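Re: export button greyed out
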Amino acid sequence: MNRRDFLRLGAVLAAPYIVPSSVLGRGGAVPPSERVTLGAIGCGGRGKSDLRDFLNEKDVRCLAVCDCWAERRNRMKAMVDAHYGNKDCVAHRFHEEVLGRDDIDVVLIATGDRWHAVLSTLAAKAGKDIYCEKPSTLTIAEGRALVETTKRYGTVWQCGTQRHSNDAFRFVVELIRGGKIGKLRTITTGFGGWGGNGFATPEPVPNGFDYDRWLGQAPWAPYSPVRVNLWRNNWDTGAGVIPDMGAHYFDFAQWAHDSELTGPTEFQGEGEFPEDGFANVPFTINVEARYADGVRVLMNSGPKTVRFDGDEGWIHITDAGEITAKPKSILEGRPVPSVHWSYMAGHIRNLLDCVRSRKLTVSHPEIAHRAHTIAHCADISLRLGRKVRWNPEAERFVGDDDANNMLSRTMRPPWRV
Amino acid sequence: MKHLYNALNFPMATFLYPAADAAGSVVSVPAEAKIKAAVAAIRGHDYGQSRKPLRAVENLINQTHGNAKLRAAIEEEFVKVLESEATLACKQFVCQKLWIIGTRASVPALAEMLGSANSRVVEAACYALSRHPSPAVSSALRNGLNKSQGSGLAAVIDLLADRRDSQSAGAIAKLTRSADAPVADAAIAALGKIATENAAKVLADLRKSDSPRCRIAANHAYLQCAQELEARGKFARAKSIYERLAASGEPEHIRRGARIGLTRRGGGGR
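Workaround output, generated via the alternate export path:
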């Protein structure tokens, strides 16, 4: 999809013929037109944190939580009930029950990585709008399917890349797009440390845990506490460090570089992989990607920061939102914002506004897919141990059958995108 | 918590993948005997065991990039594993490597796996065949429709759908009325992706089914069918489907999708 196609879609989505189901009074919901009803799928640490931020929005009403862990969903229900001072929130074991409710407008998807695209697809087909945590995909093909599915249903979908709604990060983008560092040459992204390993020795599945549901699309493997606790560190169940943080940093980099709907054309680097154990994703990385215009994106395992180097200076921002620059004059003339990465309200507000307006969110599917594609290309380069060339238009690797074979992978039924 | 504690205290030994030189050529070339020994060492691999033997094979794969002879030697050893009584964990690993490097040479062994009564074996074979471009794969998968069952059969259907295999549309259409609901669901969804003229007709019929589950699945697949046809430039056919869905008494989001389709170039814009 090109920019023109997406703008056309935006115009269609803006047509005022859709209103949230609760506004129509369906499912017995009271129809205060300003209220958006929410179901939260995934009750782990991130899901709980996201939901707290949603609950802070006065026009949100959370009606349901869902998780394959009984203990987690019951704990999250208790949190919602305490917030509203009642017992109305329903704790569901199966996402089908949440998606089948006519009185829910939006779902928050904060599950494991392997579920993000699958649940986004199912939620779109159920007529829900979506806030989906990152990384939203495990493969490039999942991302393309997600774009096509949300386009097909006119779904309002926001990727959990909240830096896109953060004033500090936006400020940096404005400076770079405004030419304050001259011509942009290099974007350096630090991903921080990554680790955790062990042997996934099979054990009996604990009571109250639907392990098969937890596993989702991943190839079958027996339950193990290591597999479940360290799922991010194995390709079967997680995406590893590059998509995990790259979803944020490449979204930011492409935004500043004004290349949100395309991507780099070359990837090359080295990764340090665990020699043994359950973990098989890189723990440290050193990758260089290059756009057709010569701009480079460097990825390393240094502190979580992003630095933009141009012909006439540089700008640096930490994950805490602290901005520095050289020459210092780049930052003069306007108050310099400092907003921590964890600030969520602006991103959630953008989603809620778009649910009403039917406009595209700031981190809409195509933008998220393109940012994730950079991460997946980098990982494929590391896994193959060689340079790969990427055609962002065709969304294919150039002259590399092995790499093209890794564009998609078969999911374990009944899960599909 | 004890397990997590142990996991986090695992020794952080690491291995640096050997990098290819700037031209992408192989840094060190293993002998065929080394390949045989490395693959033989993984045959007994099971869940929870050391992955060091697996890593050795992965390294051989990367080191042999561009060397067709040695890649063929690796694939030949992989086929022997698939045809043996090796563990499921071992076969899953081999299939995940064939996903990347598989050629026509491994298709017969993978095709045989599609007939396994163990759906996990079928799923592993489908993983290996995910992107394999050979026409022999499509043929093997079509045969798999008659050999697989349950979750394994659903995996075969899904893969044929992802490959947009038009020649399987007739056989998949028959499976839309399977008593096994996940198989029927997979078949209906597949017809939406395959999107042949016959697939569209079957979906149109299924929209009138007495089964609500079938009707709902058929509506979604019908909408996807229109989108697929539009992407293939069959705008008039896509438009006719969008118009039917937009005018139906279906849920709002289905009609919304149809209206969006009509406003694109495949619909009312033409």
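The longest strand of chain A covers residues 266-274. The button fix ships in the next patch.
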